[in-house]
Amino acid sequence: MKEITLGSLLDVIGEVFSDEVSIVISDTTEYIYYRPSKRIDLKIRPGDPVKKGTMADLALETKQKVSEFINRDVFGVPYHGIAVPFFHEGQLEGTVTAIYPALSDGKSVVTVKTCDGWIPIPFAKVVYLEAKDKKTTVYSGKVTGIHKNSLQEFEYLLPKDSFIRCHRSFIVNVNHIEAIYPDTHSTFVLAMDNGERVPVSQSYSSYFRKLLGF
């Protein structure tokens, strides 16, 4: 297959899958294509060797379809995935892997650190989260506190039907958005019901509009 044809094919494969799913394609030794989703980015680069313990590695080793949970020790964030090996004339040539965020582990609160101690905030009362100075600040209507998790870790922990990444530094609870205002360069500003304003960056604006349906 010609390189230009292969490149076009890989781009089409990426378009077929939801924005919620990351796509990884490897040959038998290294990654040759990677499209991160808006929900999870494993920081894979084409040309990187296939990492031990990953979905692709397991599929290559067993030469069978693999579907399971991978813990955070491998890429720094946990995820679920499905990896399928592909063959040509009976010879193993590589794998295609679909990666999606791990489901919530049953917790329904975010416990934040404040100056007085620790306070659990129910998911429904979290208004938004902000990454700043290597810390994540969690805002609710009455409580503001710090949490050790990164925004990327919160993306798999929080219910995806309510929480949306709208900026590299922000995740919002859509149930607390009072209004959406246009801003410069195809971006938006969200008026939250706690009185704060949260930006939607250009890189997330189309994804954000698609999920909210406007």
Write the layout of secondary structure elements.
Layout: H1 3-16, E1 22-26, E2 31-35, H2 55-62, E3 66-70, H3 72-75, E4 79-88, E5 91-101, E6 109-114, E7 117-122, E8 126-132, E9 135-140, E10 144-147, H4 151-157, E11 163-167, E12 170-173, E13 177-182, E14 188-192, E15 197-200, H5 202-212
Antiparallel strand pairs: 1-2, 1-5, 3-4, 4-5, 6-7, 8-9, 8-12, 9-10, 11-12, 13-14, 14-15
Can you describe this structure?
The protein is built from five helices and 15 strands. By secondary structure, the protein is an alpha+beta fold. The protein has two domains: 3-101, 2-Layer Sandwich (Beta-Lactamase), CATH 3.30.450; 109-212, OB fold (Dihydrolipoamide Acetyltransferase, E2P) (Beta Barrel). The strands form four sheets. A five-stranded antiparallel beta sheet has the order 2-1-5-4-3. A five-stranded antiparallel beta sheet has the order 10-9-8-12-11. Strand 4 and strand 5 form a beta hairpin. The chain is globular and about 60 Å long.
Strand content: 35-45%
Count of strand segments: 15
- Overall mean pLDDT stands at 85
CATH top level of the largest domain?
Mainly Beta
Low-confidence stretches: none
CATH architecture tag of the largest domain? Beta Barrel
Shape: globular
The domain count comes to 2
SSE topology string: HEEHEHEEEEEEEHEEEEEH
Give the helix tally.
Answer: 5
Structural class comes to alpha+beta
> N- to C-terminal separation?
40 Å
